[in-house]
Amino acid sequence: MFTRIGRFVVRRPWLVVIAWLVAAVALTVLSPKLESTTDQAEFLPSHYESVQVADLEKRAFPGQDQPAALGVFQRTDGGALTDGDKADVQKVAAGLQAKQYPHLNKVQADPGSVSPDGRIALAQIYADTKNVYEPAVTDDVKQLRADAKELLSATGLKLGVTGAAASALDAQESGSNTDGMIMMATLLLIVVLLGVIFRSPLIALLPVIVIALVYLTAIGLISTASEVFGLTADASVSTMLIVVLFGVGTDYLLFLLFRYREFLRAGLEPRPAMAEAVARVGETIASAAGAVVVAFLALTLSTMGMLRAMGPALAIAVAVSLVAGVTLVPAVFALLGRAAFWPSKAWKREPKNALAQRVGGLTARRPGLVAGVSGGLLVVLALGALGFKADFDTGGSMPKNLESVQAMDDLQAGFSAGRAEPTLVFLENTSGGRLPEDQLAAYRDKLAGIEGVAQVAPAAPNTDGSVVQYSVSLKYRPMEDKAIDLVDGTLRDQAHAAAPAGSRALVGGTTAVMADIRTAVERDYTVVFPVAGLAIMLILGLLLRSVVAPWFLMLSVGLGFAGTLGATVWLFQGIKGNDGVLFSLPVLVYLFVVAIGTDYNILMVARLREEIRGGSDPRAAIRHAVARSAPTMGAAAVILAGTFGVLMLADNSMLQQMGFAVAFGILLTAFVMALFLVPATTTLLGRRAWWPGLAQQEPASAGEEPVLVGSGRTTG
Prior knowledge:
Elements: H1 2-11, H2 13-30, E1 36-37, H3 49-60, E2 66-75, H4 83-98, E3 104-108, E4 121-127, H5 135-152, E5 157-162, H6 164-198, H7 201-229, E6 233-234, H8 237-265, H9 270-297, H10 305-326, H11 328-336, H12 354-365, H13 367-382, E7 390-391, H14 403-414, E8 423-429, H15 437-448, E9 453-456, E10 460-461, E11 467-474, H16 481-497, E12 503-508, H17 510-544, H18 549-575, E13 581-582, H19 585-596, H20 598-613, H21 618-645, H22 653-685
Parallel strand pairs: 1-6, 7-13
Antiparallel strand pairs: 2-4, 2-5, 3-4, 8-11, 8-12, 9-11, 10-11
């Protein structure tokens, strides 16, 4: 199949390029905007209690204003608020109320909302919608912040706006800046590294242009699919798309270019050389992309809507990269011919690859030692994973200079830590009718008596009194472990048990949402991991025609996953002193390291299989395969790891953790696992590694050119 594709592309390169340009422009112009959300509650299925609370609230309190943000007032000198300051707080709140924002119904400063130390006063800001994360609400919050500066100018006060809508606004603006920075850093990294590897300005710049075209096409397809299938992408998906498309796209481009350059060195003309390169490396690229795609699609089995939406988006991006890798890239380089390498002449000379030769020779001579050392290193790193602690505090990962973060710190210094986002307990009469007043007061007392609860507001009934709401302030920050454990354990248990006969209690709010997310993620570990692993093993088995090889390859990648997670825990929890690491990091590392990292295993074992089919004994095959594949694999891994490593430049600590973990995992996979552990293990197993496909030495199949060991006909 790839032989036919290669021949078609090099015969009609202009047709292929024009088709890609038309597709990219059409999708960019016609596709809908890619929507996103930061409301984690939207990502949970309906059987979780926090989601049931949201449904009950909409039904029982349809016209109720929703708390959207909090205004945190302080004196500019940090002193206690005077009576005049408190009067100014009321005036500023009234002035903001008079602005009549389209989606902010009320700005209310309760005279009693002053901290016990007298230094902080609060103003509650209400929205007219239950979804306070909507852009219309966050836009109003942005305008309110600007208007407040004018109203505060005649006072000695300062105001910080925090809460759900304010945090969403800051996250959106911070994320936009991060996307731009990551895009520029990624482009610069790719251009510099490709320039160093090929010593050609054209090769350094053209892949960036090609991948940018692929990016526009993929974004258009993803946004169209999101609208058609009703998907909601998480706010971080745009950042992930940048690094995935540029990282994976550059990987596949390198696989092809290294092979193309070798055929040119062998004396072929550019177009036949490119057609042959596509024919030889197409299956490797397709298998590598297939492993990544099925791993990402395994995310659709997650109970988390965030991951379910991210999975298809990233799978589409990789699939587009695959198609571009065997059509657009060959077409562009077929048009350029040898001029693509200008002004360098180095491409004409066969590199010595002395280091790769020594590595291959060592692995062939001492496979037991190499397997023991490389495997031992992975085991040592994996020990760090035993200390893994999930961090669900997404707000805590945001840059500390954001207004919502600073205002939240100020608020928590004066009030109970849970005052900003209280837990909501709803009591509903299951048979209808008004709940008795005496039962409501007694129920409130039971809630207030729970260890870890700071305050319980009086019951707020709906119109007919059949449902009441209690606002429960905890002593802990809404998303810290103590708060999540309390809500998911004692608070929910006692709230349910204490509900009067004929009624039911439901516990919701931000902390309850995070508790349910924790349950969902733990469930996903037991479903997504095995399904993705089995799917990748199936692809490896089909590529290698082997039952044995996929098992030891996946075991080695699993060890690489554990080593990557362990190193991340040691860095961020141990050295940097974080309370934990991103709660979804194990899923993301598993998928990226297992799927994308498998690219290098595929590159190596496909070359090993080719050498053995060419008549080499296993040790000679190892020596030649490592020497030939190492340069391609090393260059691809450094660029791919670099594109993910760029995430470490972000202010958001969760993106930093993700960037380090994936980049480190890719380097670990390429330079420890694929370069040492897998070849050494394959040498120890001998021909048994390829059973039943190569249990006996095979001749090249009919119509296939025999592969000559050391001929330059490599897989990558």
